[in-house]
Amino acid sequence: xxxxVIYNPTSGKEAIKKNLxxxxxxxxxxxxxxxxxATTPEKNSAKKEALRAAKAGFKLLVAxxxxxxxxxxxxxxAPLEKRPRVAIIPAGTTNDYxxxxxxxxxxxxxAAQVIKKNQILPMDIGKANDHYxxxxxxxxxxxxxxxxxxxxxxxxxxxxxxxxxxxxxxxxVKPINMKLVYDxxxxxxxxxxxFLGLTNSIGGFEQIAPDAQLDDGKFSLIVIKTANLVExxxxxxxxxxxxxxxxxxxxxxxxTTKFYAEALDDKVKMMINxxxxxxxxxxxxxxxxxxxxEMFANLDDIPDSAVKGDIDEYRDATTAFVxxxxxLTDEDLDGDGKISNxx
Length: 343
What we know:
The chain has helices at residues 15-18, 20-29, 45-55, 67-77, 96-100, 108-113, 145-148, 151-157, 160-169, 229-240, 311-326; strands spanning 2-7, 33-38, 60-65, 85-90, 120-128, 131-133, 136-139, 176-182, 185-191, 193-197, 219-224, 251-256, 258-263, 271-274, 277-281, 284-296. The chain has a 6-stranded antiparallel sheet. Helices cover 28% and strands 29% of the residues. Residues 152-161 and 332-343 have low confidence and may be disordered. It is α+β, with helices and mostly antiparallel strands. 43% of the residues are buried. The chain folds into 2 domains: 2-124 and 291-332, Probable inorganic polyphosphate/atp-NAD kinase, domain 1 (Rossmann fold), CATH 3.40.50; 132-289, Tumour Suppressor Smad4, CATH 2.60.200.
């Protein structure tokens, strides 16, 4: 089997680049013929390489870098009918996705060694019009926070930078008159933001969507109706105190498979944030793609409450996959020594 490491050479003070030989060695030890691609400043560099590698028959893509690199790799393969598995090696600022999958975020080599465990989790992916996202989709004035945090500040202070910038922005927050449609109903009125989560880790916090599941086919939807500074600070305090904000009447909190958002005032542009980056303007339709991409995860450390499926069943499926690989014979290979397309 072939694996392609798609890495950002500048992430984490070039941490991936410095440990690339060790990463490739771990992949070889795991049974993969491994190679690497360094992303470039060209727009969608990782996305284009992920699509090329998938069409070339690579069975595993290793997204090595920050959440932005992972997002691009997913965007490259998500539209395909047959998608390779994905492993991640975090080297960004907050590394929300790695946090959710319980992959080590402070040691590149240990993160790569998770691949050796052969533990697979079929992850939900979000689709927003023609774009895909792995962690968050959001809209409203509060979401503009991520655009205004300087990259240098994020590199030095991580998610604390978001808190500092957020406190600075709060006095400027204004509500937007929105129409929001979700599985259980519809909301028309003013709100300072809406938020769709696929995991429970957002900006380094694990209490924003405390009961989020990674594979249940549903977004965690949060709508903050108030724009009052004192009330927003109170909601943040409730969030930090065990996720108690989800029961507050100033918030709509529910689960939904689909979501539609638009600004009701034609003069107001509501920008949509996808995984921390600008993803277009509302109106926008969001769809949860249930268990769309198989990800390598540290299942031993993921709590049962974080997944809808049976963790033991996922482990059994992984064992079957490993056995299938071990049972491959020369008859399963084409003339170039690559695995032929067998079901």
